[in-house]
Amino acid sequence: MGAKSDKLMDSYGVHSNSDKLKIWIIKYLEDMSSGGISLATEVTLLDLLNKVDDSLGGNGTEYINSAVTGKAYKYLVVNEDVVFSHLEDDASVDLLVNLNITTNTISKGMVIRANNGKLIQEVTPSSGSVIGVL
């Protein structure tokens, strides 16, 4: 890895496997370009990779099979078929009504998001479980 990348990685505190993936991708891109890539491009790529890591649960996940309030989940992944008795976003919108899933069983593997960039704040499954992505 080039000196620029080493310095940049040090500034980001590279320690986790996701950070190692970021290093590998930047190294690959440097090798593919004739004169390396600019520091500004590396910063842009790292920002993009951080966003991908974040969206894939890099900030943590939580197993939910009972009532949870006061959290801020980007989305929920249905771990086992689930029926919700309560689901609310951070603007107090009833997501069961808003997403038209009031009495529906949501199948394992489905992803549930609030609308318009809102976060899911309150989750109460009456059966089944979900994984909340922070």
Layout of strands and helices, then pairs:
Layout: H1 3-12, H2 17-32, H3 39-58, E1 61-64, E2 75-89, H4 95-98, E3 111-112, E4 120-133
Antiparallel strand pairs: 1-4, 2-3, 2-4
What does this structure look like?
The structure is a single chain. The protein has 134 residues and is of the alpha+beta class. It has 2 domains: 3-58, no CATH class; 61-133, Jelly Rolls (Sandwich). The protein is built from 4 helices and 4 strands; from the N terminus they run αααββαββ. A 4-stranded antiparallel sheet has the order 1-4-2-3. The protein starts with a helix and ends with a strand. The mean pLDDT is 82.
For the residues shown, what is the average pLDDT? 82
CATH class of the largest domain: Mainly Beta
Shape: elongated
Largest sheet: 4 strands, antiparallel
> Which architecture of the largest domain per CATH?
Sandwich
What is the CATH third-level topology name of the largest domain?
A: Jelly Rolls
Helix-residue proportion: 25-40%
* Structural class label: alpha+beta
